[in-house]
Amino acid sequence: MHQFTTEVEELAKEVLEYSLIRLRTDPPLDGPKTAQELYEAAGNTITKAGLGGHETLKLFKDVLATACISTDHPRYLAFIPSAPSEYANLFDLVVGASALYGGSWLEGAGAVFAENQALRWISNLAGLPASAGGVFVQGGTIGNLSALVTARAHFRTKRSDVTKWVIAASLEAHSSIKSAAEVMDVEIILIKPDQNGVLQGAACADAIDKYHSENPTHQVFALVATAGTTNLGIIDNLKSIAPITKERGIWFHVDGAYGLAALCSPKTQPLFAGIENADSLIVDPHKWLFAPFDACALIYRNPEIAKVTHLQKAAYLETLDDDGEWNPSDYAIHLTRRARGLPFWFSLAAHGTDQYAAAMDQTMDIAKHAAQLIKQHPNLELLMEPTLSVVAFTRKGWQMADYQKWSDKLLADQIGFVTPSSHHNQPILRFAIVNPWTKESDIAEILATL
Ligand SMILES: *Cc1c(COP(=O)(O)O)cnc(C)c1O
């Protein structure tokens, strides 16, 4: 079946050469172009006769790739960057070449076994029981939605008197929680965090009890805590929130898409005390665990509940559920899936967990150093000491338009990629540092332009 002609052989060399150059050297930051500019440079690429492998690759290298920002560039500090290890990236090439199917044990036992060990590492760090388990999904958005759908399904089996299901979360919760509520057509109540942006158990108890007394037929089925807000890296008080959920029989979900990665450093692990009581949690290895896009680890305390919720039943699938083995498809909103956790697993297995902790500490040290430089900078004000690896600050006298202009120029000059955000309706700048290759000198270079 495989027809490795000399032409394919040639292309293989070119593809590998390009991939290795891309991985070996700091790539240029690059930046977006308009659709018009791209059309002028690339034309219509889909043709009757085909362009041929060599020409199509050339078009990608010269035109399309240069219009994509390198998210692993050491001075890409916007949003949440990516920082896959070399091992993870190289193994992604293997995954791509292997036609692995990651949905069922029958088809992908070896891949699923490896993914599950990587999930077990996270689950153990969180202190969940040995019976916990889950699946790698596309991202935190699908992870959060899958967990919340599981939670609601669980409570639906217990209560038939409820007219409206409700999610409780912090005002600072990630947009994907609000989006999940929309998709699920449930209500969401947003609870005010304390003056430091931390959601506290007592505030949750007050808000939920008040809501229930005012809306006797509505039921909060899940409370979502954030373990590392995307904007500022703030960790909700999991220890005080957990008992609030237990006392009320509410599902406790922890959204740690960005921050829970810091569980792997003994220095920061204690910040997440209380996580061991979570009914479900997520963390994105594509954010701060040195894995390529796209991988979110979704873990349930009791995966059986997730399976009852998400297992798809169809005549052609029945054979998969016979053996009692672990079928990753059953634990989230998906069926077909690539073994997207494997690059993460490979990197973790090859490097060992000590190196993960060290790389994590390295990024947090740079964040602390950046905070120091900002405090010494005559034009800048640090918003707060970084809890994890997000450093937020303001430039004296600047309005949003000034920030945006600076950000655009920083990218145009190919110095860095840092975008404005906002906090309490005031514009801010933030560095999200997840890349162990980001050096103190990179931070200094960006700060020199402010
Ligand atoms: C990034 C993030 C998400 C969404 O994850 P995606 O992988 O982008 O879908 C959810 N919650 C938090 C706290 C995040 O940082």
UniProtKB/TrEMBL annotation:
Does the keyword field hold Lyase?
Answer: yes
Q: Which Pfam families match?
A: Pyridoxal_deC (PF00282)
Q: Cite the entry's keywords alphabetically.
A: Decarboxylase, Lyase, Pyridoxal phosphate
Give the GO molecular function terms. carboxy-lyase activity; pyridoxal phosphate binding
Query: Which GO annotations describe the biological process of this protein?
Result: amino acid metabolic process; carboxylic acid metabolic process
State the family named in the UniProt similarity comment for this chain: Belongs to the group II decarboxylase family.
Protein name listed in UniProt: Unannotated protein
